[in-house]
Amino acid sequence: MNETAKVEPKKDIDKNLIWKTAYAVALVAVCLGFYWATTQTDYIWRWNRIPRYFYYVDTVNVTAEMEGDVTSITKKDEDSVVIVSDGADSEYYTVPGSKLEVSEGQTVFVGDTIGTYSEGRMGLLVEGTIITIEVSIVSIFFGILIGLFTGLSRISTNPFLKLSAITYIEIIRGTPLLVQIMIWYFVLGTIINNLLSKAGLFQVPELWFGIASLAIFAGAYVAEIVRAGIQSIHKGQMEAARSLGMTKATAMRKIILPQAFKRILPPLAGQFISLIKDSSLLGVIAIRELTKATREAVTTSLMPYELWFVCGVLYLVITFTLSMFVQYLERRTAEA
Fold first, then answer.
1. Which of 60, 113, 240, 298 lies 20 to 30 Å from 138, alpha-carbon distance?
2. H or E element at residue 298
């Protein structure tokens, strides 16, 4: 019996090694197959142009805003200060570095270049990625708040709260997100901004209407996840807490929700990952998130294959990071 017990683990190790090797071979085969398929297409790959969509150095022109003569050029640290005067008024222009296009006594006109300098700037893909992350974080935060309140209202004994929650959930889950974004931007957004304009107040940027549509959309799904998580906790937990003198709200906050949180983490992670990908729909209301930024880059560069592959990888990095963070939270809550 002892000899058999010693042999079986070795067999299991051998089987695992075989299947892991098979997986590695299959993965390599898929990659090679994809590479072979790309060689069969009549397309010139330009991967060397991709870095400029992450970071590039731009040449900035400092132009004259008035007509006049260059009265003086002085150095201030590493910058050049050029003073242009028309006899009555004068303006000064600071040119980083020493790449000047004018000299003292020279006459300049409006729009003439006084000097140039180089400035590093974020590329389209970085700008789009940052906006996607910002929109996703804010939408997830408000989605959790809306979902938690609606989920609790969904199981409430108060008919007003319960029916309101059911109506909200069914309407949001029963209509496409793209339609909701359009309604928020073209209908509700127009009404809200018109009312604010009549009141002499500021206008709400389209970004916030996009965030509102995503947060409310996510809130409906989070509400159902919260409801299912709470109802999965045995009723005896609430009864035991009430028998100890706790109010229903206190028992829910200290007993039920902490236990439900452990169970709803995986579906919440899935919902938030979907929300990050759904943020790509905000491009229809002129928000330059990652997908819209990629589309603009493709239009100007005519490199659809490379840019869309990079776009997919960036989304994968964002969602994978969120997935790893949720797994970390799961381990911490399991240890607690």
1. 298
2. helix 290-301
Neighbours of 40 (CB within 10 A): 7
Angle between helices 290-301 and 124-154 (to 10 degrees): 150
- Tell me which of 152 and 258 has the higher pLDDT: 152
pTM of the model: 0.82
pLDDT digits (tens, 9 = 90+) for 124-152: 999 999 999 999 999 999 999 999 999 99
For the cut 60, the answer to whether the pLDDT of residue 255 exceeds it is yes
Domain boundary pick from 98, 122, 146: 122
Residue numbers of the domain that contains 110: 55-122
* Structure tokens, 27: 């993965």
49 located within any domain: no
The residues near 47 (Cβ < 8 Å, ≥ 6 apart) are: 306
**Residue 140 in contact with residue 87, Cβ under 8 Å?**
no
Pair (300, 214) in one structural domain: yes
In a domain, 113, yes or no: yes
Cα separation of the two ends of the chain: 40
Answer yes or no: do 29 and 74 share one domain.
no
Amino acid at 88: A
Q: How far is CA 309 from CA 49, 232, 295, 305, 314, in A?
A: 14, 41, 12, 6, 9
Backbone angles phi, psi at 156, to 5 degrees: -75, 155
165 and 292 co-located in one domain:
yes
Residues 38 and 136 in one domain: no
10 and 87, same structural domain? no
**Which of 334, 144, 309 is closest to 258 using CA atoms?**
334
* Residue 89: exposure state from Cβ atoms within 10 A (0-12, 13-18, ≥19): exposed
Contact between residue 104 and residue 73 where contact means Cβ atoms under 8 Å apart: yes
Residue 219: closest CA among 172, 259, 176, 187: 172
- Same domain? 72 vs 112: yes
Question: Helices 124-154 and 304-335, interaxial angle, to 10°?
Answer: 40
pLDDT tens-digit profile of 184-206?
A: 999 999 999 999 988 888 888 88
What is the signed CA dihedral for 320, 322, 325, 326, rounded to 10 degrees? -110
